[in-house]
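Tutorial, part two.
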Amino acid sequence: MIDVLLYIAIFLGTVAGMEAVAWVTHKYIMHGWLWSLHKSHHSPYEGGFELNDLFGLFFSVLSIGLMLAGLHVWMPFFFVGLGLVGYGAIYLFMHDILVHHRFGFRVVPRGGYLQRMYQAHRLHHAVADKDGAVSFGFLIAPSIAVLKEQLRMNRARGAKVDEQSVETSHDWTTS
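Running the prediction step on this input gives:
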């Protein structure tokens, strides 16, 4: 019984911890030294694949590797890998389907938590360059008022902020 509880805790802890990993990765790697890949996500694109999707591929391979290591080396690794899969599934819904309407789904949140996350990520995309963006998490974000103020300050420091995106960030019918 203790093993089951431990494995559940490892899974849930990994899912929760991945938000911190995603935030750091997004802010310092995607908007840092690997901007050349992430830039595709901040640019208009045609088709279903963008270079930015390589980050998802990396985390998929990592999760598969951890699950295999769990089966062959040390069982807790399996649940860490499974936690990465769990976070990836949540990310797929929150980011790709909810915000970016990928895969032919168009979900437009009308209130509550989903609406706030939708708006926070839209404000992230108000800056098309690697510098000056806000809201680097995918499941947790500061209030929309805080994000708008951060964008105003970043614009004052020279970031190229799309004011129309900021002003219309409350319009849930636009994509």
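Confidence is low (pLDDT under 50) at residues 171-175. In part three we will examine how such features are distributed along the chain.
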